[in-house]
Amino acid sequence: MTQPPVISHPVAPRESAILGLGVYRPSRIVPNSEVVEAIDSSDEWIQQRSGIKQRRWATPDETIEMMSQAAAEQAIAQAGISGEQIDCVIVATLSYMLNTPAAAAKIAFELGTKHAAAFDISAACAGFSYALAVGSDLVRAGSARYALVIGVERLSDVTDPTDRGTAFIFADGAGAVVVGPSDTVGVGPVVWGSDGEQFDLIRQREDWRDVIGTPEQPGSGRMPHLVMHGNPVFRWASFAMAKVALEALDRAGVSVDDLDLFVPHQANMRITDAMARSMKLPEHVRIARDIAEQGNTSAASIPLALDRLIRDGEAKSGDLALFIAFGAGLAYAAQVVRIP
Ligand code: COA
């Protein structure tokens, strides 16, 4: 009897690590004084409730593609490879205005990859950690040698400047990392999930069909902005996410004492503080607080926050960091990483 052909998989499993980091911060700085009038707020209120002093909003030229490319070029250079060597491009974003094709395909082309696999991930503020987990596992399994992971947003396009609950929070920017093969574990196991029961807590206000309408039922004709029930999101993030973060440490076999850096999604300074307290982070762990200058950039916030720690001399190559990202969905993901 003839045996069925055996499927071969020539690449042996290997470890993965972040090899390079790059970011793009839009040129236009927007202080709280510029947003307060439209929402009847004050610089003091915004700083006290969110820790935000200013944010950056992209100019028309600072597109999703342009910001991604700028961040990616730095990450590729730091990794010491060329664009041609990238096998896979993953873009996490909620603010790319084309449903299809993926932004990743255009960015892969602009970076000079040789027809890299390219796709976008929709996991909102959890997007960077989701994409990093996928990119890392593709490298580990041999499906890609070098994966480029990008988190990028133009949230100013999808934020209602008169909405008191969101107008002062959301911002724009991009961050990218190159993930590649490594002799040691550079990206720990991901702890991730979602809670679709709370789907409506942060969402695009309406779907595109309701914007456009039908001959019988005219649409709103307005941009479907992000809407958020801030208070329940705040409570969920402050308490449930610390448990997820501790689980990621546990899965990676490290303790809070082993950590050098805590780089949470920059949602709100008070959420960061509540998580750090709840996790009992020791004093020596440096905590990313980029939100003060950058606002909440959703999928871009973790690489941007890490970049600031490095620039400020608070993080260095070889440091052990805990990433945790969370937001609409309610999706979340956490992993321990070694800084390149
Ligand atoms: N400026 C000034 N006052 C405001 C305001 C604003 N932008 N927004 C609300 N207020 C007022 C309210 O009217 C209310 O006043 P009252 O007590 O006199 O009735 C008071 O502030 C509290 O309102 P509330 O909506 O309960 O605010 P809050 O304490 O929950 O703070 C957020 C609002 C948005 C800062 C907070 O909920 C938050 O940060 N949530 C998480 C957001 C987040 O991180 N999202 C991203 C997740 S990825």
Describe the structure.
This protein has helices spanning 32-35, 43-50, 64-79, 103-110, 127-141, 208-212, 230-252, 269-278, 291-294, 301-311; strands at residues 15-24, 28-31, 54-57, 88-92, 117-121, 147-154, 172-182, 191-194, 202-204, 226-228, 261-264, 286-287, 320-327, 331-338. α7 crosses α8. With 340 residues, it is an alpha/beta fold. It folds into two domains: 15-182, 3-Layer(aba) Sandwich (Peroxisomal Thiolase, Chain A, domain 1); 191-338, Thiolase/Chalcone synthase (Peroxisomal Thiolase, Chain A, domain 1). The mean pLDDT is 96. β4 (88-92), α4 (103-110) and β5 form a beta-alpha-beta unit. The chain is built from ten helices and 14 strands. The strands form four sheets. A five-stranded mixed β-sheet has the order 1-7-6-4-5, sandwiched between helices. A five-stranded mixed β-sheet has the order 8-14-13-11-12, sandwiched between helices. Strands 2-3 form a two-stranded antiparallel ribbon. The site of coenzyme A (COA) has 19 residues, from α2 and α7. Coenzyme A (COA) is lined by residues 39, 41, 45, 49-50, 125, 164-165, 168, 228, 230-231, 233-234, 267-268, 271, 296, 327.
